[in-house]
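User: Hi! I'm working on a homework problem where we have to compare a predicted structure to a textbook description. Could you give me the structure for the chain below?
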Amino acid sequence: MLEGVEVLCYNHIVDIIIFIFQLIGSLGFLLFGMKLLSDGIQKSAGESLHRILGLMTGNRILSVLTGLFITMIIQSSSATTVMVVSFVNAGLLTLKQSVGVIFGANIGTTITAWIVSFFGFQFDIAAFAVPVFGIGYVLNSFKRLGRQSLGEALMGFGLLFLGLDMLSSIMPEVSAENMRFLEAFTEHGALSIALGILAGLILTIIIHSSSAATAIILTMSYNKLLPWEFAAAMVLGSNIGTTIDSVIASIGTKVNARRAAFVHVMFNVAGTVLAVIFFRPLLSLVDFMVPGDVYSAITAHIAMLHTVFNVLNTLIFLPFVDQIAAISEKLVKPGENETPDIYRLDVQPARLKENATAALVRAEKEIADMVSIAASMFNRIRSTLSGDDRSSITKEMVPLANEEAYADQMQEELSKYLVHCMNLPITENQRSNISQMLHIVDEIESMTDDCYSVALLLERSFQKKMSFSKQDIERLDSFVELVNKFVEFIRENVNKHLDMEKLEEARILENQIDLFRKNLKRTARKRLEKGADVKTELLYIDLVRNLEKIGDRAFGISEALHQTI
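Assistant: Happy to help. Predicted C-alpha cells:
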C-alpha cells in the first residue's frame, strides 16, 4: 500500500515538473516568435510597410477598423493585440495608432460569440502556424529568393501562434462538467456579479483565449448551468482576462510596446468597471435588442452582450485616444538606460487653426529635451573616464547608440516642424528665431554624434588593451570636466536670449577648451617623439579632438542663442 502511495506521489511530482517546463517552453515560443516577427518586419519592410500601416491607421476610425477586420480574420483578439505590441516594438505603429487597433480588436473578437451561437465552437487558428512557419523557413533558407527577412517575419508569426496554442493546450482541460461548482455562487446579487467577473477572468487566463472562454460560457448557459446575469458577468471578466497575452508579449520589449499592452489592460478594466456600474441598464438594453425570452435565446443574448459591451466601450473611449496615450506614457516610464525608440512630433492638420506662439513654445520644449539627451550621453562618457573600471564603456554602448539614433530622429522631426512653423502667421522676429532654432537643432545633433565618436574611441582603447598613464588620465579628466561645464551651460541657458555678458562667458569657456586641447596634443606629440606607442598616442589625440568638437558645438549654440530676440 505504502509503495503505491509513493509511486503516485512520484508520478504527481513528475507531472508538475513536466508542466512547468512545458509552460516555460510555451512562453519561450511566444516571446521568441514576437522577437522574430518584430525583427523580420523591420528588416523586410522598413519604411514602406510603415507607410502602409500608417495609411491603414491614419486616423482613429481607420485604426479601429484595422483592428476589427484583422481580428475577424484570425479569430483571436489576443493574437491581434500581441501583434500590435510587436508592431509598436518594431516602430511600425505609434502608441496612439495602437490604441485604436486595440479598440477594434475587442469588437472583432465578438464575431466568435456569434459563430458559436449559430454554428458551434469549431476553429483552430493555430493550425495555420505550422504551414506559415514552413513558408517562412523556405524563404529564409533560400538566399536566391531574396526574401530572408520576410521569411524571418513569417517564422516569427508561426511561432507566435504556436506559443499561444501551446499555452492553451498545456492548461487543465476545462469543460461544462467540471464548471458545475459555479452554480453555488449564482444567487447572491452584487456578490454574484463580482464572482462571475472573477470566474470569467480566471477562466480566460487559464485557456488564454476570450473567444474560447466565451464559447464555454455559451455552452454552460445553453445547458442551463448558468443564469443570465452570472453568464453576463463572466463575459465581462473574460474581457479583462484576455489582456494576459499582450502583457506576456510586452515582457522585455521597448517602452512603447509596454505602454500599448498597458493601454489594452486599462481599456478593458475601465470598460468593465463602467459595465458593472450600469449592469442592469446594460442587460435591459440587450434584452430589448434580442427578441424573445432570455432563456429561450440565451446564446444570442450573450453574443449580443459581448458585442454591445465592446462597441459601447469603443464609442465612449475613442474620443480620448490622445489622453489614454498620455496616461500610459505617464504611468509606464522608460527603463533606467532606455530611450524611446521612435520620436514623433506631429504637425497640426491644415484645417485646424494653429497658434504660432504655442507652436514655438512646443518646439522650444522639444529642443530642451534634445539638449538633455546630449547632456545624458556626455555624462555617460564622463562617468566612464572618471571611474576605475574602463570596461564599463561596453555596458554604455547600447544606450549611447539608442540615444544617438533618437537624437537623429529628433533632428529630422524638429526640422520639419520648424519649417512648418515658418508657414504660420508669424512676425519677423519669430521668423528670425526659428532660423536660429534650426541651427541649434543641427548643432545639438552634431554634439550627440561627437559624444558617440568619443565612446567608440574609448571602447576601442579597452578592446585593444591600450593603457594611458595615470597622469594622462588626470589631464583628460580635467579636460572632460571643462567640456562638461560648457555642456551644462548650454542646458541651463537653452531657449534663452544670451546677452553680451553671457556670450562672453561662453567665449571664455571655448577659449579655455581650445587652449587645453592644444596643450594635451602637444604633450602627446612629445611622447611620440620619445618613442611612445604610436596607436595609443594617436587614439589619445583623437579623443582630445572629438571632446574639443563638443565644445565647438556648444559655442555655436551660444552664438545662435545670442542672436535670438
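For your comparison, note the following. Residues 2-44 form the longest helix (43 residues). The chain has 22 helices and no strands. Good luck with the assignment!
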